[in-house]
Design a protein that fits this description.
Blueprint: H1 4-24, E1 30-36, E2 39-45, H2 47-68, H3 71-89, H4 103-106, H5 116-128, H6 135-156
Length: about 160
């Protein structure tokens, strides 16, 4: 049995390290200007934009690792192949103890729905952490983000 807490703790610590780097990272902002349908559009890329995208991707991949550690996710593809093979042969579906409401969660292509909460937590944290007025509030924000990510990983599992 795979312990999801190992995967969740690695994800939380890597994301918190990235948020801590945000405090000390100073990159120049780049502006990309173009015209779309005759209207000028300016896209400003800052260090927070880049870091937010990287940390959101890390949160999504960490959530994917946690979801894959669940026993239903481990055995679902083999079980679904067996059920599909039995249906193709016209055999009765014996031992099908999973209800119709639970079946979509077992499908391997639908794990992305679990990424939303951790990615949203990271995006909000990346946007709010630079606004901390003192280092005490910044550290408090870092701790709250870590606790929220850990609890969300436990809830997702």
């Amino acid at each position: 049995m795979i312990d999801y807490r190992d995967r969740a703790s690695v994800m939380v610590w890597v994301v918190l390290l990235g948020l801590a780097v945000q405090r000390f990272l100073a990159l120049p902002a780049r502006a990309i200007e173009t015209e779309v349908f005759g209207s000028p559009v300016t896209l400003t890329i800052t260090a927070n934009t880049i870091l937010g995208a990287v940390l959101a991707a890390l949160a999504a991949s960490g959530t994917e690792a946690v979801v894959r550690a669940h026993p239903r996710a481990l055995y679902a593809p083999a079980r679904e192949r067996g059920l599909a093979r039995a249906a193709a042969l016209g055999l009765p579906r014996l031992g099908d103890s999973v209800g119709a409401a639970e079946r979509p969660a077992l499908l391997p292509g639908r794990r992305w729905v679990f990424w939303g909460l951790p990615v949203a937590l990271i995006v909000v944290s990346v946007l709010l952490m630079p606004l901390a007025p003192t280092p005490v509030y910044w550290v408090l924000g870092l701790l709250v983000t870590g606790a929220a990510l850990g609890l969300s990983m436990a809830g997702i599992y």
